[in-house]
Design a protein that fits this description.
Length: about 200
């Protein structure tokens, strides 16, 4: 058992303050002693989500645990492509890995779980269209629906043109659809000419 109720409550309070999902290093830097941290783990107060990432067991079950885990591990990354499509419900694809965009020269930590597929974006193709989306009460960086659809056309050779075309059609049926926004991102990503006939077909 934990030796001190005071230490126990204080450590739980630190987890809550940090959003309930915390990297080991952040917990220790916030004042939780390593011994207390591992006592909390052995007592079932916290649970392991992935390597170096833990959450309070008292929290409601996560609806998007993989997205949360990867976003915490790679805070400068952006959820993209099929993972973002699935979040916005504009695809019939089921992502079996987390699709993550990072800047071209950034270093990505080794992630054993969940499976992650990295895409290196350059310059404005990386920085444009990033939004903060709420998932399980936490903010995660994700490209907007319009930018996500455009990215699917940009990476059509890697994920399939059929996936990109389906995403465009399903996006067209939502209230989020904005043709001007999509054309803007198509120019940013240099796929405006490729996308033009597909956009015209759904308008």
């Amino acid at each position: 058992m934990l030796k001190s109720n005071y230490i126990y409550e204080k450590s739980i309070a630190v987890f809550r303050k940090l959003g309930g999902i915390v990297k080991t290093s952040d917990a220790i830097n916030a004042g939780i002693h390593p011994r207390t941290f591992y006592e909390m783990l052995s007592e079932g107060v916290i649970e392991k989500l992935s390597r170096g990432l833990y959450r309070l067991v008292e929290l409601p079950p996560l609806g998007n645990p993989d997205l949360i885990s990867v976003s915490k591990r790679v805070p400068n990354g952006v959820i993209c492509l099929i993972s973002a499509l699935a979040f916005y419900e504009i695809t019939t694809q089921i992502p079996h890995e987390v699709y993550l965009a990072v800047s071209r020269n950034s270093q990505v930590p080794r992630i054993d779980y969940p499976p992650v597929r990295i895409f290196r974006f350059s310059s404005s193709a990386f920085t444009e269209g990033i939004e903060l989306q709420k998932a399980d009460g936490m903010s995660i960086r994700m490209y907007s629906p319009a930018k996500t659809v455009v990215d699917c056309f940009k990476y059509r050779n890697k994920i399939g043109l059929d996936v990109a075309v389906e995403a465009l059609k399903l996006y067209r049926e939502t209230k989020l659809f904005g043709v001007d926004e999509m054309i803007y991102f198509a120019r940013v990503c240099r796929v405006a000419r490729v996308m033009r006939p597909y956009i015209e077909a759904v308008l």
